[in-house]
């Protein structure tokens, strides 16, 4: 499901056929709400793409609407960029600090980087464990001696890699405690 959604969104971007806002959305938009939503999701400001989308539909966006968007966005992005929020999102692989303005970005960089490394290492551990399980199943089915030897060698290397990742995870957990807000 996630892959399908990603492919759909990617193709929209590549083909430039997806519209940011429909005509109805442009007509009834609460620009302050849109700015708030974009900021709370950690997006960079989308005012220009939203206005361009509405303009393509012959719907003008006035200066007051733009200002309401920007004010709400600025307030919301500062909420998003709080250390606790960045920590909670980054530790599950969803945090980004690219839209955080300075000095907030510098303040949360170590939190984001450490929590993201923790998440990525955790994903690598799960991947290695899955690979080891797959090889276990293959070993049970293989009758050829040479093939079995190759699989056992792969399994040994994966187990070695897994042990390194587990050691890294212990260190990352210590680092997380140091940066946790």
From TrEMBL:
Record keywords: Coiled coil, Signal
UniProt cross-references to PROSITE patterns, sorted A to Z: PROKAR_LIPOPROTEIN
Record organism: Acinetobacter qingfengensis
Name of the protein described by the UniProt record: DUF2799 domain-containing protein
InterPro entries: DUF2799 (IPR021242)
Domain of life: Bacteria
Signal peptide: 1-22
Database matches in Pfam families: DUF2799
Taxonomic classification: Bacteria, Pseudomonadati, Pseudomonadota, Gammaproteobacteria, Moraxellales
Coiled coil: 125-175
């Amino acid at each position: 499901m996630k892959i399908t959604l990603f492919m759909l969104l990617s193709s929209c971007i590549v083909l430039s056929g997806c519209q940011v806002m429909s005509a109805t959305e442009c007509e009834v938009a609460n620009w302050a709400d849109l700015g708030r939503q974009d900021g709370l999701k950690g997006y960079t400001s989308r005012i220009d793409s939203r206005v361009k989308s509405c303009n393509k539909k012959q719907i003008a966006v006035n200066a007051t609407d733009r200002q309401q968007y920007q004010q709400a966005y600025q307030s919301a992005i500062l909420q998003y960029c709080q250390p606790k929020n960045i920590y909670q999102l980054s530790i599950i692989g969803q945090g980004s600090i690219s839209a955080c303005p300075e000095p907030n970005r510098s303040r949360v960089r170590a939190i984001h980087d450490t929590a993201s490394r923790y998440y990525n290492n955790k994903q690598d551990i799960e991947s290695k464990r899955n690979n080891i399980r797959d090889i276990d199943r293959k070993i049970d089915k293989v009758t050829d001696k040479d093939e079995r030897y190759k699989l056992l060698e792969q399994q040994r290397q994966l187990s070695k890699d897994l042990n390194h990742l587990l050691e890294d995870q212990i260190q990352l957990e210590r680092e997380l405690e140091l940066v946790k807000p």
